Amino acid sequence: MFEHHQAYLQALGQQAKQASYALANLSGEQKQQLLSAIAATLTAHSDTILAANRQDVVNARASGLSDAMIDRLLLDKARLNNVIADIDNVIRLADPVGTELESQLLDNGLRLSRRRVPLGVVGVIYEARPNVTVDIAVLALKTGNAVILRGGKETLQSNVALSDAIREAITAQGLPADAVQLIQSADRALVTGLLKLDRYIDMIVPRGGQHLQRLCAEQATIPVILGGIGICHLYADKEVDIDKAIAVIANAKVQRPTVCNALDTALVHRDIAAQLLPKLYRQLADLGVSFYACPQAKALADGFAVDIHDATEESYAQEWLALTLGIKVVDDIDAAIAHIRQYSSGHSEGILTDNIHAAAYFVNQVDASAVYVNASTRFTDGGQFGLGAEVAVSTQKLHARGPMGLEALTTYKWIGVGEYTARR
Amino acid sequence: MFEHHQAYLQALGQQAKQASYALANLSGEQKQQLLSAIAATLTAHSDTILAANRQDVVNARASGLSDAMIDRLLLDKARLNNVIADIDNVIRLADPVGTELESQLLDNGLRLSRRRVPLGVVGVIYEARPNVTVDIAVLALKTGNAVILRGGKETLQSNVALSDAIREAITAQGLPADAVQLIQSADRALVTGLLKLDRYIDMIVPRGGQHLQRLCAEQATIPVILGGIGICHLYADKEVDIDKAIAVIANAKVQRPTVCNALDTALVHRDIAAQLLPKLYRQLADLGVSFYACPQAKALADGFAVDIHDATEESYAQEWLALTLGIKVVDDIDAAIAHIRQYSSGHSEGILTDNIHAAAYFVNQVDASAVYVNASTRFTDGGQFGLGAEVAVSTQKLHARGPMGLEALTTYKWIGVGEYTARR
């Protein structure tokens, strides 16, 4: 890494840490005022923000981005208003900071409690959509954290305009603007450097694809919350209501196919495959789904006009994010679990069954952030889970698992109060 | 890394993961029986274990290890009996696995709960003392986890004998011996390789010095719990009971100087330095303490026969683990907090004061796993905190902070139960 990168990142980290100390002192009410001020300033600067976004769109078209990508990065008046309106929802959430998780008087005379506190400094690396800039800044501030943002280069102008407005609002509240900092250079070396600022940053959240996740896992010396990759399965057990099972599978696949909790592979017990699969092919093909099926499953599609391919190791390991579904016939529940263990990304898995023992066994033996019985994988979501907000969806097991709400942006400290108490 | 290392580590990881599935199914009672069987088998194999330890001691002497180091690795009949007796304490602890942290019926019809489950596979890297082999294996099994152990080469024979006995007991209970695996080669490349087995290992706990901690932070692609490094401070505020403050400082320094929660630097408000420091020098010198003091503090030692040196950047950054104490006079509480922010390892920090506002301010502004008011830093300990066991002391903020009890060896999964419920 170049020396000027090093110096830039060090300054960024120091400023964030310094700002975090001021944020740790704020009351819930002060943080609410801060967020209200941010909403107002964003509204006041709407024209500047939309103009910056138009520039991003012009650049995106010039560099040949697809219409779908351009739609993702586009902000219009209505979308920006929604982003700003969402701040009100965060304002209304309970502030987890300051809660004492337990408090006891120890035999040694010490009053010991565990108090929820901000993490300190959070680094978030994300792609495309500019609303993330506002979402993350607001969630971080709500929990008393400073944040360093690194957005995609496609939305740089928008992100600069948004973060400038946020920083203006922070300053106007008499707080350090560096509570929210945006890395404005598109240089990738800055990402690698950011991942090693363990002296200043307490947690890294990468919100992006497999490549970004691996980069963070491999390069970071800071704890990273991996997530957002969902290779999700539903297993239809032999004792199952076939029509209802198909309805859940269809929901999990087609209700919103481009997101991480959408279904990728349906596993079907061999005893019911001949009844379930022809119906499933027909219904899902009507919804525009194509299939990658094992030989046994493919044989059951004979005579239907469905788009069906041979399943492979690679297709089973695929997060489709599209109207495509893997299909595999399995001998029993253990074979289903073994398949899931091999291919799951630990996001969302489910069993469809009428048998209570099969359900309990599956729940116990499948290792994922969310395990469902007779429900769609699409439920794995901060909003659906009632968390009020979603920082990310974690697929790792430490600190936060599954949809991450405000608590995931906090840690705790032990507080021991004595009377000049010594240890015996 | 050599290919045979790669193959060995892959097998190790796969076997551990496979064993973890069997452990996840055990009831609390079955795990208690397993631990009882381990205690009995260790007792039955005492002679073999002690003989192996004698071999380690012979080798240690031959390679010129210090008497202190040899004492650390020595097992005699009494020490081994203590290690085995400690298993009974773990048996009696409540099993955190299976607890439902919350359970609610969502508006969308889903019954959603969060259930505490084992992490899966835990990797522990440690140095010297052979009792850690038993401690960690027992705590991991108690929480339904498989464990991969990498002990120090100085205790290899002891660790082999101990883990062989543990594995024999596991097998006799009809469970997979690979629930506990010991890396028997001293090759350091295996440690680096272990840190990258993210497909199989869910958490790495390094129990060792700064060098090991940094190695893990830099090399691991698996979440690591850093900890065990304590650069600890006590700040004597201007409103303080001088004699009582000195007693707490003395306790924090001398009660057990070789451990991570022992005091490293005392910070003293300038208004009371002239009263406090001469007394402190005298009392602590009598207990064998030597000092590294700032110029202002050193001047106050004139005329005393104490061993006092000039404090430096390096001395302030030192975890002494010995009867040595840094001393610094500070202008006010903010200067004390600034010093702590610069040099603290985030382990244990404290304020000595009669002023309630100073205490609250310090607790809020100091970022450490444990923050004390009028108490010794020596309290940061799983036993003192009533956790019943101590896996390690974490100085990072994610997952577990401070003394880690059984819960730190668990995670949770979200469980959603519906009635063939789809998302709208």
UniProtKB/TrEMBL annotation, chains A, B:
Superkingdom in the source lineage: Bacteria
**Per its UniProt record, what Gene3D superfamilies does this chain match?**
Aldehyde Dehydrogenase, Chain A, domain 1, Aldehyde Dehydrogenase, Chain A, domain 2
Give the pathway listed in the UniProt entry for this protein. Answer: Amino-acid biosynthesis; L-proline biosynthesis; L-glutamate 5-semialdehyde from L-glutamate: step 2/2
Which ranges carry the Aldehyde dehydrogenase domain?
10-288
Give, as one word, the top-level EC class: oxidoreductase
Q: What does this protein do?
A: Catalyzes the NADPH-dependent reduction of L-glutamate 5-phosphate into L-glutamate 5-semialdehyde and phosphate. The product spontaneously undergoes cyclization to form 1-pyrroline-5-carboxylate.
- UniProt name for this protein: Gamma-glutamyl phosphate reductase
Q: Give the organism, scientific name.
A: Shewanella algidipiscicola
Name the gene for this chain.
Answer: proA_1
